[in-house]
Design brief:
By secondary structure, this protein is α+β, with helices and mostly antiparallel strands. The protein has 9 helices and 13 strands. It folds into 2 domains: 137 residues, Nuclear Transport Factor 2, Chain: A, CATH 3.10.450; 134 residues, Fructose-1,6-Bisphosphatase, Chain A, domain 1.
Amino acid sequence: MKTINLVLLLTIAGSALADAQVQAPPQTARQALLEMLLAKSPDAFERHLPEAVRNSLFRDRDAPQTPFLRELTSFRSGIARSNGQLETFDSGSTLLTIDENEAHHKVEIIVERDDLEGGADEIELSFHSYIDGRPEPLPVRPRIVLSMEQEKEVWKLDEVTVALHVPLSDPDFLKDLQRNQNSALESTAIANLRTLLTAEISYSAAFPERGFTCTLSELGGSGLQDAPSQQHAMLIDDTLASGRHNGYIFSIRGCGVAPASKLRITAVPSDTGLDLRAFCSDESAVLRYATDGKAASCLSEGAPLE
């Protein structure tokens, strides 16, 4: 009986020893990449950079980072600050997803290809954004190719290639591009209109005997003199004072007899073929718009801008 018990003990001990000697599977290049992107400490990130890079760029912690490392660090920080649900995948077509449920926004990083050959692995990634489950139009569609190589049994980021895909022959893409451009032009026009309203209020307070002015140049004049005057109040920059800025023409009218207490400010697109809105306001400072791009329509029946 003692012999049998001894044999059993030796068998159990041998089995436990064998289990202890079983090593975890080696980290893949993809897992190393995820570790870099999600690293919570500088050491975990730098571990996957080549030794030459670490010695050259991280010897002095206070030294400024190169543009690429700065962008990569910013990307990592953006992931860390995200309030959305983060999910990573060690295999399959998706590398990671960030789902911001409250904003109805989702970002996916897709693995387009993962070519492993010997001690090198080339991973191509594409980025996709969705709003309410529908693809969000992007000005460009970036793709990144990350070349990883093993160095002392640790995967290191050896090379990065960035490509920007711009589908110029895609009608839907061109429409989205034009829409984004129009939105930027309109946003600038609205901001300039508010600047003019603020300048008019300041002008009438500084020169109460004059009130509002219908002459744009009288709101400008920066650099022409040392102190503001009725002719050059130095309240707006000279570009806006010229009446043309970033695709829009600005004008002021209806001031009447001094001291003027009324005015009408309009901003209309300089190119009527761009399908841009016209914007306007008066002494009430309520901003309105007209979809036909005409000042008269905005002043007579423009809808309030929300």
